[in-house]
Amino acid sequence: MTITLITGGNKGIGFETAKQLLELGHHVYIGARDVERGEKAAAELGARFVQLDVTDDASVNDALAAIDSAEGRLDVLVNNAGILGAGPIDGPTALRVFDTNAVGVVRVTEAALPLLRKSSNPTVVNLSSSLGSFWAVNNPERPEFNLPLALYAASKSAATMLTVQYAKAHPGIKFNALEPGATATDMTAAFGIGRSVVESAKTVVRLATLGADGPSGTLSDEHGELSW
pTM, whole model, 2 decimals? Predict the structure, then answer.
């Protein structure tokens, strides 16, 4: 049985990823800030729920302690929780976006490392974005060129760099960052763009089910590795 934790798993790509991994036989824990919404999503899917707010150290530590107590290890961690931070830019907004999208990756990963080390095939997938790629945002032929989401883009660039640094620091664990593709979720509703979460979740599942000899320290989309 593969034990998997997905942060922000009560909706959007996280929810669909949980659904697809459950169909593959994973034992999935959905982490969500809101207890009512998280429990409802877990019940709908047949998953388990842990209250997990990636911006709160105590919440993160309690969630991983609960998984440790129940399972004794963690095989797959999907750092999916994130916010867009669109609109006017100011200090408080920047702190909130980075705290969720970048520092949240650090909080959850650090709390999960002792459990991942107990796995025979430990894998971490960080939901990043090609908006955090210098190559993509400076390429007029790419859609990222015309998306003015400075805080989201910068925080996702940080998430990708964290992925690379974690991969170098922990060679026994696979760490990969993912551009899941523009997806129609409540986060992107204002832009009216995106494909079905079903398609985007498939890209997450691919990295979450890598074999022991799979790559590490990469940023990729459904077509392969991306420059950044």
Answer: 0.93
